[in-house]
Design brief:
This protein is α+β, with helices and mostly antiparallel strands. The chain has 3 helices and 4 strands. The strands form 2 sheets. It has a two-stranded antiparallel ribbon with strand order 1-2. Strands 3-4 form a two-stranded antiparallel ribbon. The termini are close together.
């Protein structure tokens, strides 16, 4: 599960604006989203580039078919992640 924190970039270092509960010496993946006044700034160009090239909507059946090939259970993955905490 992810956790969102706000930080400021100063002198080459991201500094959290509130205390963080993270394990020492662990690696984390950080997603950088620029904000203005605390609100995320939408990258309209990026959002537009994510639109399907042919404008075709994907049906729920196509999504179900694609997801059915993923092994395991999402519920089991959630339980495993929860038990790690």
């Amino acid at each position: 599960m992810g956790k969102q924190i706000h930080a400021v970039y100063e002198h080459g270092v991201l500094r959290p604006l509130e205390p963080v509960d993270l394990e020492e010496h662990q690696r984390y993946c950080i997603e950088i989203v620029r904000t203005v006044g605390g609100e995320p700034v939408l990258d309209e160009e990026f959002i537009e580039s994510c639109a399907p090239e042919n404008g075709r909507d994907v049906s729920i059946e196509e999504v179900r078919q694609a997801l059915s090939s993923i092994p395991g259970s999402l519920a089991d993955d959630i339980r495993t992640e929860r038990d790690r905490r």
